[in-house]
Amino acid sequence: MFEKIKEILISELQVEEDLITMDAALASDLGVNSLELAELILVVEDKLDIEINEDDLHKFITVGDVVKYLEDNAK
Predict the structure, then answer these.
(1) Residues near 14 by beta carbon (within 8 Å), at least 6 away in sequence
(2) How far is CA 1 from CA 35, 64, 70, 74, in A?
(3) pLDDT in tens, 3-31
(4) In CA terms, which of 2, 6, 50, 67 is 20 to 30 Å from 19?
């Protein structure tokens, strides 16, 4: 799952590959703002055929948080 998220961050948000780790904070380390986070979620939902509850977005602080959420909620 990490590789899929990494790929999306690189292709959709032009995040530098070297910066993406499980511990990387989306906002402070990768420069992802709230609008880009929403875009990321839409792309993830589309590519991975998963629905992410809007109420859970506040839980996405690091790349690892996104990966864990997706692994826990994948179909």
Answers:
(1) none
(2) 22, 10, 8, 10
(3) 999 999 999 999 999 999 999 999 999 99
(4) 50
Q: What is the DSSP string of 6-45?
A: HHHHHHHH---GGG--TT-BTTTTT---HHHHHHHHHHHH
Q: Which domain holds residue 17?
A: 2-73
Residue 19: which CATH number?
1.10.1200.10
Per-residue pLDDT tens digits for 43-59: 999 999 999 988 898 89
Pair of tokens at residue 51: 């629905």
For residue 17 the two structure tokens come to: 């590959």
Number of domains in the chain: 1
